[in-house]
Amino acid sequence: MKTNRLVLALGLLLVLLALSPVADAQVTIRFQYMGDEHEAAIYERVVAEFNKRNPDIVVIGEHVAGGYFDRLLAQMAGGVAPDVFHVFTEDFMRPFQQSGFLLDLTPYVENDEGFNLEDFPPNLLEAGYYQGRLYALPRDVAVRVIFYNQELLDRYGVPAPDESWTWEVMREAASRVTTLNPDGSTRILGIDYGTWFGPWMNMVWMWGGEVADPEVTRILLNTPEAIAGLQFMVDAIKDGWMAGPDFNWKEGFGFQHGSVAFKWDGHWIVPWAREVFDFHWDIALTPKGPAGRTTTLGSNWYGVNALTQHPEAAVRFVKYLVGEGNRLFAGLGGAVPSRISLVLSEEFLYPEGAHENRLVWLQALETGRWAPLTVHWERLINGLMQPEIDKALRGQQSVEAAVAKIVETAPAILNE
Fold first, then answer.
1. Whole-model pTM?
2. Given this model, what pLDDT does residue 25 score?
3. Per the count of CB atoms within 10 A, which of 113, 215, 291, 327 is most buried?
């Protein structure tokens, strides 16, 4: 009798185990993330909430405060990379895609009716695709707009910028506010536009030129339109109303100190601006060139390790990161969310302390373009293009000479 009862109990236990999730069915994945203490705290919340909602998956978060990609590359080489990680667009997207480091997400998103890929701006998603397949999903988007000091503009009788502004109007406005000290140094500067690749590529595009062909097999800077856009920037720096590569950013001088009228920058400075700036500021779209308006795109992406043992779990977590997780980052205020629905949400449009026209970020996103994405980014952009363009911006060579050198040298890099 006791034996029969034992057999019956064991049988019932086996049935219950078959019908219930068991410890062995639970999978563990690793998520390695970067960011400051504020972002780290949000990621901890996101991971905890995901684990709570998905009892069959355990996500272990690993915060890396510095040297993120050096560590990630070493982990990939050693075969111990995390299941989910960040991907930066310019430096790593194409190398990771072409090297097979990233899991192809296409079947996981196309076959999921609950995941709305159309909520992401199509121009933003372009960088995540390679040969028609999707390999990463964006957490946020970096677009730049014009920040302006309303008090300085009022002092010099300059109207606030709006959608109608062209770069010719900006030239007139920035020239009017630019003033010098008796020693010849700048007292009030028109615009801090920047001289890295984003500003000069924008000028090329807004004047109707192209940096490269879509496949980045040829450099196209030697056209009249591209040269004219670059020349406008060279002239602006020479005339003194735009800061150049060697501008004297002395202590206490800058937009934040009220000595620059216009600044081309991104949403990441907004929390700082609300806390630190002691003047009335607002934002407007980048001025238009002869061929229209553009702004350089950037993003922090999530990718899945192609060698993960748990692809379904890892992709489910990435979808959560760009969904509910993204909503938490929208409220933080440091980045523009990657999903249109979140850009239009109350968390993003009406955060505490906001006074600026925040719909400008969505309008700017619609004009965004990616810099040429290539596995040769470091040598092509940082090693060749930027140094030659810098020489032109400094007046050390003509735009034509800079472009000729770039076009002549680039094939050796691109054909490696």
1. 0.89
2. 78
3. 327
